[in-house]
């Protein structure tokens, strides 16, 4: 269930994008699941069509959903691929930390600090939009 908080400082499109992404990552929305049409979801949530469209575009750019023309928008397998890439990166980090002789506690502090800092550009924001 999607809930948009009109009083939140977070823009509605971002609330929607984050909630859908969360449901994809936690498998509430399974790979292959068909999403409501943009117009339908906008009407259901009391949002502008452009607001829902922007959320869907960002999810598509992130590889979490794909739009198949008139057939609609569907959850892709990218959520699984993303999780696997993160697992591999964590394994690589663990190997690097071990090679450097750092203990697990310090390695976790470093990782937590990195997660809190702004992420470096990954090329996904190429000025489109």
Based on the model shown, name its key terms.
single chain, 129 residues, mainly alpha, two-stranded antiparallel ribbon, 5 helices, 2 strands, 55% helix, disordered C terminus, GntR family transcriptional regulator, transcription, WH-like_DNA-bd_sf
Strand and helix map with partners:
Elements: H1 12-25, H2 38-45, H3 49-61, E1 65-67, E2 73-75, H4 78-100, H5 104-116
Helix pairs in contact: 1-3, 2-3
Domain HTH gntR-type: 10-78
Organism: Nonomuraea bangladeshensis
Pfam family, one: GntR
Written account of the structure:
Helix content is 55%, strand content 5%. It is mainly alpha-helical. The two termini are 28 Å apart. The C terminus is likely disordered. InterPro entries: Tscrpt_reg_HTH_GntR, WH-like_DNA-bd_sf, WH_DNA-bd_sf. It comes from Nonomuraea bangladeshensis. Keywords: DNA-binding, Transcription, Transcription regulation.
State the share of residues found in helices, binned by percent: 55-70%
The tally of helices reads: 5
C-alpha Rg (nearest Å): 18 Å
Mean pLDDT value? 87
Strand content: under 5%
Q: List SSEs in N-to-C order.
A: HHHEEHH
Report the biggest beta sheet as strand number plus sense, adding barrel if it closes.
Answer: 2 strands, antiparallel
Number of strands: 2
Dominant shape: elongated
> Strand arrangement, largest sheet?
1-2
